[in-house]
């Protein structure tokens, strides 16, 4: 079907190319041959009188026009899905949808696993996909590629569709066999101890723990840096190192790993988690259901 001389079927392919930036991957996702995708791209280029994508190495880089079209194309796909799935009564057991949620491994463990179990129990074809948080993933969320972003408030501000989920205070953890640290810890003892620190390197804002260490001029205490809260636990096991984890995650890991909580005799930083979504998701019953489940499960977490 054509509208304003554009074959609307090409928009689905255009959306896939914008997300994958790869002809072969788009062909696999849409169950098409590579020549078919290449021919469709040629038709899109003729319609828009623009290259749309240029090869940089093995990757298709979008042109400025393609970047400008990314958001309206994502909205078109989303609204088309809403129209196609519209029924007089919303039925979770018949709706087919996969929601992509950008979040840290800590949020995936304490929150998304619970949401995933509820989705499996309450629906037949509503699925969840966890996307590890990074600057690139956040950018793709902003462009409409992903549905939700769960992150601390400092990661992205001034987004119109956001809601506070829960606050989590950081706690200190040590290996269970670490005899150098007792059940309590002063600030000086913590700052002068070797530390394992989680740093999400490509995010523009430092984490609350990084800010805490910078405030006390103790970044040098970090002997190990990694980009996963889960790996912090593995790094300190069998060593005298200490680490800081959000309380809800630390409680979970204490049950599964040879670590223990150490009571700090000082105030540790608090992380405030929020969820961001796209305005057009509010018109989709399945998206509202997923958001509601996330909010309900988050209510049991944190301080």
Characteristics of this structure?
ten-stranded mixed beta sheet, D-Maltodextrin-Binding Protein, domain 2, 25% strand, alpha/beta, two-stranded antiparallel sheet, elongated, 11 helices, 303 residues
What order do the helices and strands come in, and which of them pair?
Elements: E1 2-3, E2 6-7, H1 9-20, H2 23-30, H3 34-48, E3 53-56, E4 59-62, H4 64-85, E5 96-103, H5 105-122, E6 125-132, H6 135-142, E7 148-152, E8 162-175, E9 184-185, H7 187-191, E10 195-198, H8 208-215, E11 222-226, H9 229-236, E12 242-246, H10 247-254, E13 259-264, E14 270-277, H11 285-298
State the major sheet. Answer: 10 strands, mixed
Q: What structural class do you assign from the helix and strand content?
A: alpha/beta
CATH domain class name of the largest domain:
Alpha Beta
What is the β-strand count?
14
Describe this structure in words.
With about 300 residues, this protein is an alpha/beta fold. The chain has 2 domains: about 1-85, Orthogonal Bundle (Arc Repressor Mutant, subunit A); about 90-303, D-Maltodextrin-Binding Protein, domain 2. It has 11 helices and 14 strands. It has helices spanning about 10-20, 25-30, 35-50, 65-85, 105-120, 135-140, 185-190, 210-215, 230-235, 245-255, 285-300; strands at about 1-5, 5, 55, 60, 95-105, 125-130, 150, 160-175, 185, 195-200, 220-225, 240-245, 260-265, 270-275. The strands form 3 sheets. Strands 5, 6, 7, 8, 9, 10, 11, 12, 13 and 14 form a 10-stranded mixed sheet that branches. Strands 1-2 form a two-stranded antiparallel ribbon. Helix 1 crosses helix 4 and helix 2 crosses helix 3. The radius of gyration is 23 Å and the shape is elongated.
